[in-house]
Design goal:
Elements: H1 14-24, E1 31-34, E2 40-43, E3 47-49, E4 56-59, E5 61-62, E6 65-66, E7 80-83, E8 90-92, E9 97-100, E10 103-106, E11 114-116, E12 122-124, E13 127-129, E14 139-143, E15 149-151, E16 154-156, E17 160-164, E18 172-174, E19 177-179
Parallel strand pairs: 1-4, 2-7, 3-8, 4-9, 7-10, 8-11, 9-12, 10-13, 11-14, 12-15, 13-16, 14-17, 15-18, 16-19
Antiparallel strand pairs: 5-6
Length: 180
């Protein structure tokens, strides 16, 4: 995140940022990961965001302006996080994690796209892509916590579009489009 001179940190992947900031973050200061360019990041397992901070934002906004990492509503455009793991591509393992403006792509028949199963986790302007007709299980966005939110998202190619656990108080799904 850009701040005062000398405070900038550059990482070569979301996974590298997560590893570095997990050990450096404090519960009193928010953490922001600004994805500045379009590229594909390939993984073989779920990337769980474990940064425990006052609030963690992973976004394609750089200094308030959408970067080339933003998908702009186009499938497979911008920054794309791929996973061939059998669980979710990307998940919130800490509270108050916000995913904003990029694409996750699951390449297995039974996995989820995004897992927002922590309190105050948010998926906003995200695209979740599955394998399509061969999907045997899995949801594009899985909401498993009260106060978790999916808003303005596009989901395609999963067995379930957006799935929630029963009786989630104040969980929100708003203005999302899900197609098989």
């Amino acid at each position: 995140r850009y701040g005062s001179s000398g405070s900038e940190r550059i990482y070569d992947s979301l996974a590298a940022w997560n590893t570095a900031r997990t050990s450096a973050a404090t519960a009193y200061v928010p953490e922001t990961c600004e994805i500045g360019m379009a590229f594909d990041e390939l993984r073989t397992s779920t990337l769980y965001i474990t940064v425990n901070s006052a609030g963690t934002i992973i976004t394609t906004l750089v200094n308030g302006v959408r970067s080339g990492a933003y998908h702009n509503g186009a499938l497979m455009a911008g920054y794309v996080l791929w996973s061939s793991g059998s669980n979710a591509v990307l998940g919130a393992s800490a509270y108050r994690v916000r995913f904003d403006g990029f694409t996750v792509r699951n390449t297995v028949a039974s996995g989820n796209g995004l897992d927002v199963s922590k309190t105050y986790a948010v998926a906003d302007r995200m695209i979740a892509l599955g394998i399509g007709a061969g999907a045997t299980a899995g949801a594009g966005i899985y909401i498993g916590a009260a106060t978790a939110t999916a808003a303005n998202c596009i989901v395609s190619g999963f067995y379930y579009g957006i799935q929630t656990q029963a009786n989630l108080y104040t969980a929100t799904v708003a203005n999302c489009t899900a197609v098989k």
